[in-house]
Amino acid sequence: MIDPEFFARRAAEVAPDLIGHLLIVGETGGIIVETEAYEPGDPASHSFGGPTLRNQSMFGPSGHCYVYRSYGLHWCMNIVCRPGHAVLLRALQPTHGLDVMAVRRGTQTEKALCSGPGKLTVALGVDKSHDGLPFDGHSISLIAPSFPLSPVQSVRIGISRAVDLPWRWYVAGSPWLSRKS
DNA sequence: CATTTGATGTCCT
DNA sequence: GGACATCAAATGC
């Protein structure tokens, strides 16, 4: 399991370190290949402006989930770092339970199973009921890579505020990203 | 191929 | 009422 100290840092420090970790939810999972950091004081972050009913998990214990509804219909999954900080999981390389994920996603094309924040929650079966749950190896696990990767740093995607903050990290050339880079 | 559009939860003004 | 950390299908070149 991951040292709790790993999560109790700034989101912008945790996000690149999460690249290469194996995320397991139930019988499905994959390797994290794309993340984004959101911090307090960051106008694009849900924690900007303090706690609300919706974002309260973002101010809860580090190393837990923050799951929210995006655009009224998609679930998005974050890992909470220190209070008000969270890392959005944007894409996975599918490794576990591909058949189950394909059924949930209703697609045959393996490269599109987890290639986006709204897609990977469907593939993993994550929804509001996972909000606030810990990555403790019970229903949700996180396993460190055997060797560190060197992700590429870039600007975030799909936001309209603080668009210049270079807080997106991804595995260069990976075919599993939410968009080609 | 690129661009537009529809689905509609939760928070903010 | 409007904005939004999105996706897939429809439409237009």
Q: Which terms summarize this structure?
A:
single chain, 181 residues, alpha+beta, 3-methyladenine DNA Glycosylase, Chain A, eight-stranded antiparallel sheet, 4 helices, 8 strands, 15% helix, globular, DNA-binding
Structural account:
With 181 residues, this protein is of the alpha+beta class. The protein has one domain (4-170): Methylpurine-DNA glycosylase (MPG) (3-methyladenine DNA Glycosylase, Chain A). Helices cover 15% and strands 27% of the residues. The chain has 4 helices and 8 strands. It has helices spanning 4-7, 11-18, 98-105, 117-124; strands at residues 22-25, 28-38, 65-70, 74-80, 86-96, 140-143, 152-154, 168-170. Strands 1, 2, 3, 4, 5, 6, 7 and 8 form an 8-stranded antiparallel sheet that branches. Helix 3 (98-105) crosses helix 4. The longest helix is centred in the N-terminal third of the chain and has 8 residues, at 11-18. It is globular and about 40 Å long. The mean pLDDT is 93. It binds a DNA duplex (13 and 13 nucleotides) through residues 36, 38, 44-46, 49, 52-55, 68-74, 76, 78, 88, 90, 116-119, 156-161, 178.
